[in-house]
Amino acid sequence: MISTKRFRVDLPLVFILLLGVFLNTYNIWLDAYANTYYTTAVASMLQNFHNFFFGSLDSAGSVTVDKPPVTFWIQTVSAYIFGLHGWSVILPQALAGVGSILLIYLLVKPSFGTAAARIAALVMACTPVAVAVSRTNNIDSMLVFTLLLGTWFLFRAVKRNSVYSLLGAFALIGLGFNMKMLQAYMILPAFVLFYLFAFKSTWKKKAGVLSGALALMLVISVSWAVIVDSIPASERPYIGSSETNSVLELAFGYNGVSRLTGNQGGGGDRGGMPDGEGRAADVQTGDAGGTAPGTAGTNGGGTSVAGATGGSAAAPSMADGGGMPGAPGADGQGQPPGFGGGGPGGGSGGMFGTGAKGPLRLFQSALSGQASWMIPFAALASAALLAGLRRTNFTRKHKESLFWLAWLLPGMAFFSVAGFFHHYYLIMLAPPIAALAGAGWSELWNAYRGRSGWLSWLLPAAVAVTAAFQVFIMAPYNGTIGSGWTYGVGLTGAAAAILLIVLKFRTARFSYAAAVAGVLVLLIGPAYWAATPITYGLNSMIPQAGPSGGNDRGAMGQGPGGGMLPGDGGQDGAVSGSGSQNGDGANQGTDPGVLEAGNGDDPGASAGGTGTGSETDRSAGGWGAPGAMGGGMGGRSVNEALLAYMKAHIGGTTYLFATSDYNTAAPYIIDKGEKVITLGGFSGNDPVYTTTELEDMVKSGKLKYFLISEGGGGRGGNAELTQWLAQHGKKISSEEWQSGSAQTQTGTGAAAGMDGGRMGSMTLYEVTIEDGGDAS
């Protein structure tokens, strides 16, 4: 029999989805590189299948990024179809963010109704951190979509009592593991508890099916890792940021337990710089457990060219309040001003401004603006959702409410005590908060309509308490956004709560409208914060929401919330070589002859100096115009003179050049499609090649030129490589490969400008070694 039931479009849902599309995609076409670390990997993965499978950072398949490749596979397919652009690698995450809004609606509607589903979808769309992450090519938006899709299969399995749907649900967690490793397992308690409580079967059969589902999840989780680890190290890339060149060790160490403990000294006890997500690796003194400067790891023989830190003195760990050695514009200890701040002016403590550990961490100014706006409402709503829970009255609503709580509470507990995470990890809390807010609203309304008992007062109480908390979030930013927003949220929230109280004592036909309005006014603040990546700009490497990124950026690209962003210069002149546009950057240089790090005034220029690039022409890195985003390239771009010199002299050499810093290689790989080798992964210190291996590459005609920073210390400078090049290489005069204007502006013999100056001047070496002979 053919059903005559007509399909009806939910117009409010359509508008919510369109809002999500706007917030996630508007102006992403202004971002030329997105997160440059990941975009460089996509560009390398487009070059051959070997790089594609392993998620290689560079053209030679030397070293991988520090995450599994599934998300980057998707980004690479997008780049293959649409061409390699910033927007084409962002697009999958932006669409995943919109897909998550739809999935929240579909998950809430069957049990709690259409109105609850719409509210849940709207809360998800307006969660600031979800928007900020979806506007970048970071992994988390795709991960959340995958986990929500797994949740849909889980709910379907319970509804239909389907073992196959259950297996699909746990398989998707395994797929999520291959996106961001153990972070995908944060929802595992919720999956297990919901299955045990909601699936209709005997306990013995439940245990057997659950064991099979968990086994399938584990097999899928470690499948890529086991395949890669079983391949001889000489036939695959080095596993970036790992200690032992192992994917499994990376998963359960640096990307696992270390997230909780905060010990981020990955890559063979190397000192280092932030990772692809901006991590601060330990740069420790010898007695603190780190390696002394000048010590290199090895990779199967010979002397490693990565791992040493040149001749610089050991620096304290950044996690212990030290800082990056030799960072321009830093304080006396090399720490950028404002490092660790969480709100306007900084000072909130915690690595990257994540606040002090404790039960109230998510409610401090450092983190509250990202995902915590609706937590008070969700908390009081949960009381209404579970108020009728009895052993003899355990409904599907109760089970689904417990599922969302089992997702939310462990996540909140983790972020309250974790030693290392970034603001944008909090997107993991967005789905359960949205679901509980929407589902809980329906129960709050039912209790309010009942007009009796303490539960009937929870709706106006939830509106009042949540509005007050949102005033607390917004008030510190009054100097940036004006006090009108804060007063508006506070007054409308108070008015909505008072109206609900008044209507409770009299029969009123407008009670439902007041209940809807009560929750909608609570979305004014989150919606404004969600729009800040468009209006104030966003750093694509470490995305955060909030208006402080527009006017309060400090040294070295301090972003919203005061967290330090690695290597980004700023539109606002952070550590600029020619002053700032707005004059509010720290340690602004005024001498055009001196190249400072992170010049945000003209990142497209090949040298430091008095660049005057327009706001819309800042695509080479740093902070862009409102709506544009910096990917952390520190102002680097293709040096056309260098490229022309290389093309004229490399002959049949496979690779254009090798360099320690992926930022130096990035524009050549991304913009020009050239083959460039990264010698040391993200930090420049992964033990990727030994000097013996480099000699073999030179002898075989694969490699001839090395473009190396002379700055020493940190990324791009190490003693072993410098010593080897001094022995076997010949310095090429900068007059032969650098433009005359760049040489004049830098005032140095070597060319500093094309590297943005962050790591010092750059020197080009030519190395030719005959088989069995010395350098010629």
Question: Structural class of the secondary structure composition?
Answer: mainly alpha
Compute the CA-based radius of gyration. 27 Å
Main beta-sheet strand count, sense and barrel state = 3 strands, antiparallel
Described by the principal axes of the CA atoms, the overall outline is: elongated
- Count of helical regions: 29
Mean pLDDT: 78
Residues in helices, as a percent range: 40-55%
- Enumerate the spans where pLDDT stays under 50 for 5 or more consecutive residues: 266-303, 307-342, 549-630, 712-717, 741-760
Task: Give the terminus-to-terminus CA distance.
Answer: 85 Å
Residue fraction in strands: under 5%
Question: How are the strands of the largest sheet arranged?
Answer: 5-7-6
Instruction: Count every beta strand, where a strand is a DSSP E run of 2 or more residues.
Output: 7
Would you give an account of this structure?
With 776 residues, the chain is mostly helical. Helices cover 47% and strands 3% of the residues. The protein has helices spanning 11-25, 36-45, 49-54, 70-82, 86-112, 114-125, 128-134, 140-160, 163-180, 188-198, 203-230, 247-261, 266-269, 368-371, 375-386, 396-417, 430-450, 458-474, 478-481, 483-504, 511-520, 524-535, 548-551, 640-649, 662-672, 691-699, 719-728, 734-737, 740-746, and strands at residues 538-539, 629-630, 657-659, 676-678, 705-709, 729-732, 762-767. The strands form 3 sheets. A 3-stranded antiparallel β-sheet has the order 5-7-6. It has a two-stranded parallel ribbon with strand order 1-2. Strands 3-4 form a two-stranded parallel ribbon. Helix 23 links the parallel strand 1 (538-539) and strand 2. Helix 16 packs across helix 17 (430-450). The protein is elongated. It starts with 10 loop residues before the first helix and ends in a 9-residue tail after the last strand. The relative contact order is 0.11.
